[in-house]
Amino acid sequence: MAKNVNVMALLGLLALAAVLGMASGAGGHDYAVALKKSILYFEAQRSGVLPPNQRVTWRENSGLFDGKANGVDLVGGYYDAGDNVKFGLPMAFTVTMMSWGILEYGKQMASAGELRNAMDAVKWGTDYFIKAHPEPDVLYGEVGDGDTDHSCWQRPEDMSTSRQAFRIDPQNPGSDLAGETAAAMAAASLVFRSAYPGYANLLLEHAKQLFAFADKYRGKYDASIPVARNYYGSFSGYGDELLWAAAWLYEATEEGCYLEYLARNGDALGGTGWSINQFGWDVKYPGVQVLAAKFLLQGRAGAHAAALRRYAQNAEFFVCSCVGKGGPGNVPRTPGGMMYHQRWNNLQFVTSASFLLTVYADYATKLAGRGGGGAVRCPGGAARPYEILAFVRSQVNYILGDNPRGTSYMVGYGGNFPRQVHHRGASIVSFRKNPSFVSCQEGYASWYPRQDGNPNVLEGAIVGGPDEYDDFADERNNYQQTEAATYNTAPLLGVLARLAGACGTGFEEYQLPPVADANRTSSPPPPASRRRRHKMPSSSPIEIEQNVTRTWAARAQTYSRYAVTVTNRSSRKTVRELHLGVAELRGRLWGLDEARYGYVPPKWRQALRPGESLRFVYVQPAGSPANVWVTGYKLV
User: Fold this and answer.
1) How many whole angstroms separate alpha carbon 501 and alpha carbon 506?
2) Is the keyword Hydrolase assigned to this protein (predicted)?
């Protein structure tokens, strides 16, 4: 065993030595410049009274009466994307991810001269959250509404749309919104702990109150603030945010009650049941699982090590799926190598996954340095830290221009970047140049359809990005691809800082495995069989069995009908909110409903009691069955 460890260490060192001096990036990328621009982007998204040191000079003050109609001061915060609404859930996730990036890679940010700017970006968000949380059990979660805002094309300085504020409280709960805001303030308290301890204590007090509020009065925020549902609906529910908040409060306080909450509620809230390859403003499970793995690796799990290991197993699933070694749950890739989930704003998932992969690989590297294995055990073979980091670099380089189009999807970086970003403020002449009022309809008539590039460059913004074939249309009305969002850029701050300070500390040259076909990295399908049992991890109570029940020929093609049985093998706990993944499906499926995160049972079948089974069928050309696996569940 010792010889094997030494050999692996030697291979890592050889790969490391191949790329010393990488601070300016492979392929000529200047990650320090990209980092600077990415932080600058948040200044363009500011709402409220802009500070004297504002560097994005085409913006002016806006939203100066936010909250007044509700009797509360809600001036400040961030606009989420290309509109003028302040949505609380994605804003809080943005602040959490910026804070996490600073906590992991603040030294690299300082070396690049950007730590102060990054901290200012976090504080702009947390100052607003303090205002939005005027009472322990009250949190304002939105200012403005998407429906009226989207009927206008106006600079934020000219806003004439509704600025009504919406809140959650004990009668109208929102555990997901309150939980994410608690996570943001807890993480940010660590950012300011040394420099501003009084401010850090204030943030921590708000975080504790918000978590208690979220846990005591449970419910989805989009049921209480229905105007948010069509824009930032809570598809994953609130279980992930409660666990996410508890994890960050444990990180910030070291108080055992939060670790106990994480361990005790892993089954009921989905932390140990969800194994998913997406991480973003809605679904936080992979983030919780990576934090739990961190606690384990750092020896901070205490008596809860067994529970946290179950979280860590799902963190490994996320890593394996992203790097293409996870089997049927692998994240598809485009022909150019980009991770691909969906056409609308796909890059949000690329940047968030890149951050989780980076921190996980760095945690594993530290473990290896203490004599641990370091590599992640994947169905498709071990994923070593330097391989994971090399894959991350490939994704970042794709965003910065190493792609089939040669387009940088970071606005303002490189010579070929999107010029018609779907963004109200950037697409209309600067208020400072021409303060004449631009009405709703004038904006749509005169500025929205212009064929020229935007008059203001939204530097550092990460747009939605290309489709599954690496195609991209730089058109202002193509909002699915050309709109940028704060949560696209926020996770990238830490990754870019890590890259800028790499100098051969792990982002080494590595030959990535070839893509399996034109646009997907999947394991080859298993051999055909008439009976197939899918074994979940030993800790899972769910068993999946497939059987061929009929085969027939039609039009020179042989078809098979497969019956799939999903059984809850737990002796005493009920499975709820079951989500299934189905891949390699080449025909029709009956008995499940399609959802955002895979397939779910019909609405009339909300639970599987101990020993109960769910059945569904599908038909496809004979040869090999579809791959069916569990994406997530709660065990109560």
Assistant:
1) 10
2) yes
The CA distance from 292 to 300, in Å, is: 9
φ/ψ of 391, rounded to 5, equals -65, -40
Q: What is the pLDDT of residue 552?
A: 86
- 603 Cβ contact list (under 8 Å, min separation 6): 593
**Helix orientation angle between 175-191 and 197-216, rounded to the nearest 10 degrees:** 160
Tokens of 179: 């939980």
Positions in the chain short of pLDDT 70: 1-27, 368-373, 503-539
- Six-digit token pair at 527? 């051999």
> Tell me, what DSSP letter sits at residue 515?
P
pLDDT number for residue 635 = 83
Contact 351, 341 (CB under 8 A): no
> Can you give the pLDDT at residue 302?
92
Other beta carbons within 10 angstroms of residue 577's beta carbon come to 20
pTM above 0.85, yes or no: yes
* 3-state DSSP assignment of residue 230: helix
Cβ–Cβ < 8 Å for 333, 385: no
The values of phi and psi at residue 13, to 5°, are -65, -40
Exposed e or buried b per residue across 171-207, where buried means at least 16 C-beta atoms within 10 angstroms of its C-beta: ebbbbbbbbbbbbbbbbbbbbbbeeeeebbebbbebb
**CB-CB contact of 70 with 162 (8 Å):** no
Residues noted as catalytic? 422
Q: Among all chains, which residue has been given the structure tokens 């018609």? A: 420
Q: Which residues contact 127 (CB under 8 A, 6 or more apart)?
A: 76
Q: Are 525 and 627 in contact (CB under 8 A)?
A: yes
Amino acid making up residue 414: G
> Shortest CA distance to 540 belongs to which of 573, 581, 565?
573
Helix runs in 408-511, H state only: 424-427, 440-442, 479-482, 486-500
pLDDT at residue 586 in the model: 85
Decide: 331 and 277 in contact? Cβ < 8 Å.
yes
User: CA 222, CA 117: separation in Å to the nearest integer?
Assistant: 33
The SS3 assignment for 357 reads helix
Q: What is the pLDDT at residue 327?
A: 83
Other beta carbons less than 10 A from residue 534's beta carbon: 17
Q: What is the CB neighbour count within 10 angstroms for residue 596? A: 13
CB 428 within 8 Å of CB 458: no
Q: Which of 422, 464, 440 is nearest to 155 (CA)?
A: 440
Distance of alpha carbon 159 from alpha carbon 152, whole angstroms: 9
Q: Spell out where 450-541 has E strands.
A: 531-535
